[in-house]
Amino acid sequence: MYELNRILLRNFGPRDARYEDVPLDFSGVGAEVETASLIPDAGHVAQRPAPASLVMLQNGGGKGVLLTGITCTTIPFHHQDLETLRNFTISMAQPSHVVLEWADARTGRLLVTAQVLAPERDGTMQRLFYSFHPCAALDADRLPFHREGHWTPYEDYCTELRDWKERVEALELHLLDGQEKWEKHQRGLGLQPELFDVQRRMNAKESDAAAAFTTNTANAFVEWLLRKATDDDQYTELGTAFHGYAAAHDQRAQWERERQFAVEMHRACEGVAGLHGLHSKHAGAAHRAEKDLTHLTSAVRARHTQLSTTESDRNAALKQTHSVLETAKGTCVLAQARVWHVQMYAHTLQLGEIYAQQETAQKEKQEAQRQSAAWASVPIALRHAQAQDDNNRAQLALVEAERTAAPYIRALDTAAAALRAGYTRAEHEARETIRAHQRVTGETQREIGQWRTRSNELLTAAGDARAESRILQEQTDAFVLRLGAARELDLLAPQESAADAAARAQDDARHGEQLLQEANQARKSVKTERDRAQTALSKQQRLAWSARGAATAAAEETSRLRARAEDIRSNPLCGELLEAGSDELGADDALRWLDDHADALQQLAERRAGGLETTLTHKRIDLQNDQTLLALLDTSEGLLPAAAEVRDLCEKLSGHGIHAVPGWQWMHDNVPTSERQQVISTHPDLVGGIIVGGLDGLDTARTLVERLRPLPSAAVTVGTGERMLSTHTASDAGRFVVEPSPALHDEEAAAHERVAVHTCITELTREVNSLGQRITAAGDLLRQIANWHDACGIRPGSELLGQLEVLEAAAGEAESKLAEARTAAGEQEAALQGAEEECEARAEGLKAAHKTAEDLARLAEGEFAADQAQARIKVLTGEKDARENELESLAGQIGQADEEVVRLARAIESAEQAAEGYVRSREEITSTSQAEQVHDDSGAPLLPLPSLQHRYLQAQDELRGVEVGEDQQMRAATAQKALLASQAEWDKVPEPVRGLAMAHSRDGRAGDAVQRDAILRALTVEIDSYDTSLQGLRDQASRLAERARNLEPAVLPNDEDAAVWTPATVAEARKLEAKAAGELGTAQREERLAQDAFNTARRNQTSSTKDLAAFDRVLPMLETAVHGLTVPPDQPPYDGSAEAATSAARQAVAAHTTCRDEALQTERKLEGSVSRLKEVPCDVRFERLDIPLRTQISALESHHIPAMAATWTNALASRIAALTSDLEGMAKARETLASHLSGHVTDLLQRLDQASRFSAFPEGDAPWSGQKFLTIRYKKPDLPALTAQMHESIDALAGNQRTRNLKGIDVVMRCLLAAVPRGFTAEVMKPNASQRLDRVPVEEMSRVFSGGQELTGAILLYCALAALRTSPGPRSRTRNGGLLLLDNPIGRANAGYLVDIQMEMAAALGIQLIYTTGLSDEDVTSRFPMRIQLRNDAEARSGLSLIRLEDQVRNALIPTPRIAPDQDAAEPAGLLTSARLYRKQGDTQ
After folding, report:
1. Is the pLDDT of residue 1375 over 60?
2. Which of 362, 611, 933, 1299 would be 1293's cystine partner, CB 3.0–4.6 Å?
3. 911 has pLDDT over 90
4. pLDDT band at 750; cut points 50, 70, 90
């Protein structure tokens, strides 16, 4: 394992903390390298780096930059903070460098891992990672950072590295630009990027390393610990095996479902085959009964046909007489319609004459009524005309009077507008006066507020001064009391001041410090000797533990390998391959026996497996060919129909290199059109067959066909083109016939062939299964041997046994030396205890001296404060008098101002009352808007308000003298009212009557009421006569309409007939009515004669129908029975009676029904069996099965299934045997996977035990010596229960879609948690100064531990994790656990005992500690063997932080002049310099 030797930072960091040229050197302080030579080779060191180092830099100075540089170089893929790196770099011309130099803790060989990085102009980051082993040609100090005093640009630097890689192979230089590849490369070097990722989480926040170990449960902590301590790659093979099993898991379930399907189908097919034979027997009897029934039905049908013919003849006679009857009835109906038609039109003509007379009388009546209404409205028209005339005269008089008063109204309106404007002006003046007074009042009040504020300030200052004086006086009095008490205690001489006494006490304290320093030096000397003894004890203890652990691990490994060897030797196949008996195999130690025979056994097993695989392949090919042949011989559905399989044979022949085309195609391409008919007639077999090229091709095709034996479902002829073109057909030259399938022509031959093929298939299946089992056994043996080889590695078994004996002897010797080292360490511990007691006594004296000095120093400060208080009291007294005088002056000014405010308030109130009075007066006066507009537009100055008021009153008086009188206005109103009343009366007169009434009003008779009454009486008599005439006409029309409604509607045959029988006048109607009555009588006599002939024909037809009806009752019974059957048509008519036919029909139907029912019952049973058979493929359990048989059965119609049931029964039996074999093989794979998982789970549980052992403190006399800081407890599962649990876990994970794609490590972790169902209990010891044993659950660390204790616990857990990950074996306790880099852990854990615990555990596990801090606690920093002090300086001249080095070093390392080649690049703004300090054992200071 590597330890960090040096860090080189070049041009890296932000502007305020740039590491421009900072080397951090941790080398040469640790223990010597065990395998180092006296003079180390180039690229090697003889001494390890410092075991614990402290990098010191003030807070905010750039510690985080250092951590970022290391993290982004070790784990760039996990870091992923490009924005920060952009801020830490400058440009491509001035790249940044982070170089880490590592030293191998065992060999001292150096390793450099580094990166160069620079930002592009577009913001992208260019990074190159590289590693090499330093040698004489190149090391970290000689990397080409600069060239001719300037930074080497990024591209040039990368080019030079590539040149070094090509020139010097000894460097082992690797260049990588992929971050993930770089981490993988570091893992190959042994740098463990996973541990650096844990450190990154621990350094996420300063002094908060415990956050990386915070978990909610012990199970989560255990899983996290094992994941960090284990590589995922070691479970890749397991993950692949699990994925294969998971992929086949569903197939396994499918196989089980398919096997269950095959078993159920086999049972169902057997039932269907049995019922199929029984159904064939019953179907024959039903067929015979059906034949008798159909013959009887045919005879009855013939007799029925004969009777139907006779009935048809009589029906024809009946139809003829019925036609004559219908014709007579039609003639009678036509004559009746003509009578009704003439009568209807006669009534219509009479009604028309009456309606014309009614219309004339009605018009004359309406004219008389209109004249009567007009004469009745004449008085209203006269009154309306008189009212209009009176109103017109009154309105003319009123308009003349108003025209006279108009000038006086305008004068009053003008005066009112001027007076309103005056009132408005007076209101505005009053408002302005109010605003002026308000402004003066506001200013006065502000002055009063300022004066009062100043008074309050003065009063507050006076109060503060009084309080300050009181406090100062109390301080003075208190100092006098303290001074008196000090003199009483003899701390001061009678005349000595407090300052002199404090100086004297400081001298005494410094003398005590010198004495304590001498005691500490003596204690350190003794402690150094004690540390040497403890170091020797720890070293010897580590050696003893290492030796014992190595011996134990070797013994366990040997036992495990011997057990595996015994398993291999017990395999029966070993004796068979080696041709040895059980006694010969078990005579020697299993490990030595397998070591001697492993190679030979592996070769024999591989040869055996290869031979069996070849044989199995041949057998499977033969089996497939036989199954194909069996399908071709299938006659389950009868003889195969002849099918054209010419194309299939052509493809087979062409596939074997023979040019073959169908005969039709060859004829199309080679025979002229005119000759094709002749060729078809001569060689029809070749036209429908196959043509090959030449006689050689024909012989080759014959040989191939005889070997393949395709058995087509047709007789196919193969010949040559010459044979087709020839006209001779007698000889067989030039052709041959391919043997067709016997299933085409001979069922018995096909059955014999199938039996032979079935026998071959059965034998081949048995041989295939046997070969599969033998191959599986050979494969298992090969896997056992391969696993044994992987476990042994390259070491033979004899070497392992010899190494075990050597390790046991070394362990005993190391344990004896350990006892001697413990005795020496105890003696040094007693000497150290005495020295520490002396130091504690002197420290107590020094503490008392410091306390006295501090008391006197405080007393001297009090003396100085008392003198200052007296001076301050005098100043406060003078300020008090000045404030009192100013307060009196301010009180007088405030009183005068208050009086002025009161006067102004009264003036404002008076002005507001005046303004409101003006507003009220203005509202009492009205004027028109026109007058106000004219007044505003004139611009004339307003007169005083009294003058305006006088003018307004004068205009009112003048208007009163000329205004219109009330009597005149009343006369006009009365005339208008009368007009409105007469207008309302006139509006009630109807509109048509108004004109006629107005015309009658101008008649001379209109003014005489007597004449108007005479005219009205004459019009009334005329209207009554019209009413009497109209009533007579209406009565006559009602009688005619009633007679017309009683007549039936008549429909004549055509328009011509209607025109002849339609009268034009009433006289013509009477003549036509007499003619129609005569024709009606003649038609009625003819209708009676036709009715008698029709009755005779109907009696004859009824007799025939009765005979036919008797056979109609027999025939439906037979027709129902033969429904769906084929009836012969050539039977003679039945010669018996209807009763005999009925008896014979019942007997035939009964026999047919009985036989048919038996057949149907058997058929239903068969259908039920077939339905149950078809339900099996449709069962939800088998819905996901995708096999041809299930698809075929689902798609096949039910009536085809019984004939194929026997064939399916045999095929299903073979499939059941094959599936059983496959499932057994998968069960073996499951067992193997469970075995491997059990082994991995057991290994992980051992690693948990190992983690607890690694966390043990070194042996010693302290209470914690030998105690385990981390304790993980769980119930260890026994092997049978673990194996069972692995089976369950495998099936559960493989059966879940979300977990079947888990990686190998995830599968193992889930199985681990399942193997410990009660979970894990993880406890840690709570760090405390007295080392009291107090254990706390790991999930409660954040709640129970203090900040420093929690951080210390996190560091100890990391140490255990690092040791566990880097441990070479389960029993090893390594001393090279790597590096732990933390950001300011002592900021939280600064107690000395906490730091000692951290360093003690890290030293015990060989873990290098590098801490950063901004504190300078000497008690803590002095505990680190290596301390590096960094300083962040700023240049005052430029205002930037720049590097300050010695001139000669600056010229060598820093570019001169200081001008960056990239003008756009930012100027570096920060500098860190380092001073390296380290302490070696044996130094006194």
Report:
1. no
2. 1299
3. no
4. low
> What count of other Cβ atoms lies within 10 Å of the Cβ of residue 1271?
16
State residue 205 phi and psi, 5-degree precision: -130, 145
Q: Which residues touch 50 (CB under 8 Å, ≥6 apart)?
A: 26, 27, 29, 30, 1408, 1424, 1425, 1426, 1478
**CB-based contacts of 588, cutoff 8 Å, min separation 6:** none
Q: Report strand pairing: 716-720 vs 690-692.
A: parallel
Helix then strand then coil, % of the chain, to nearest 5: 70, 10, 20
Predicted confidence (pLDDT) at residue 36 exceeds the cutoff of 70: no
| Sequence ranges of the domains in the chain | 2-50+58-191+1427-1478, 641-738, 1014-1045, 1057-1098
pLDDT digits (tens, 9 = 90+) for 481-534: 877 887 777 777 777 777 777 787 788 788 878 888 888 888 788 878 877 887
Q: How far apart are CA 441 and CA 444, in angstroms?
A: 5
> Under 8 Å CB-to-CB from 208, ≥6 apart: which residues?
202, 1351, 1388
705 Cβ contact partners less than 8 Å away, ≥ 6 residues apart? 649, 718, 738, 739
DSSP-derived secondary structure for 270-318: HHHHHHHHHHHHHHHHHHHHHHHHHHHHHHHHHHHHHHHHHHHHHHHHH
Global confidence as pTM:
0.43
How far apart, in Å, are the Cα atoms of 767 and each of 528, 787, 1214, 1216, 1330?
82, 30, 13, 16, 78
What is the distance between the alpha carbons of residues 892 and 1344, in angstroms, rounded to a whole number? Answer: 73
Q: What are the helix and strand counts (H, E) for the chain?
A: 38, 20
Mean predicted confidence (pLDDT) in 172-196? 88
As a whole number of angstroms, the distance between CA 1138 and CA 1112 comes to 9
- Both tokens assigned to 202: 């621990």
Tell me how far apart the alpha carbons of residues 1011 and 375 are, in angstroms, rounded to a whole number. Answer: 10
* pLDDT tens string 417-442: 887 788 788 888 888 888 888 888 88
The per-residue pLDDT for 558 is: 78
**How far, in Å, CA of 1457 to CA of 1434, rounded?**
19
Which numeric CATH code is attached to 2-50+58-191+1427-1478? 3.40.1140.10
Cβ neighbours around 246 below 10 Å, total: 22
Q: What angle do CA 550, 552, 554 make, to 5 degrees?
A: 65
Longest dimension (CA), the chain: 184
Under 8 Å between Cβ of 997 and 378: yes
**What 3-state DSSP class applies to 1282?**
helix
How much is the average pLDDT of 656-679? 78
**Residue 1195 predicted with pLDDT over 80:** no
Instruction: Mark out the alpha helices in 1179-1256 (DSSP H runs).
Output: 1188-1195, 1201-1254
Sign of CA dihedral 1124, 1126, 1131, 1136: negative
Average pLDDT rounded to a whole number, residues 956-975: 72
Mean pLDDT value across residues 1176-1180? 75
Q: What is the dihedral of CA 643, 646, 648, 651, to 10 degrees?
A: -170
pLDDT band with cut points at 50, 70 and 90 for residue 1372: very low
The share of the chain scoring above pLDDT 70, in percent, equals: 89
pLDDT at 1369: 52
- Kindly state the helix (H) or strand (E) to which residue 175 belongs, with its residue range: strand 174-176
State residue 584's pLDDT score: 63
Distance CA 738, CA 740 (A): 6
Give CA–CA dist 1280/1286, Å, rounded.
Answer: 10
- Say how far apart CA 914 and CA 955 lie, in whole Å: 26
- In 3D, which of 25, 45, 27 has the Cα closest to residue 35? 45
Query: What's residue 1484's pLDDT?
Result: 40
Q: Which distant-in-sequence residues (6+ apart) come within 8 Å of 660 by Cβ?
A: 649, 650, 653, 654, 690, 691, 692, 697, 701, 718
Judge whether residue 1482 has pLDDT over 80: no
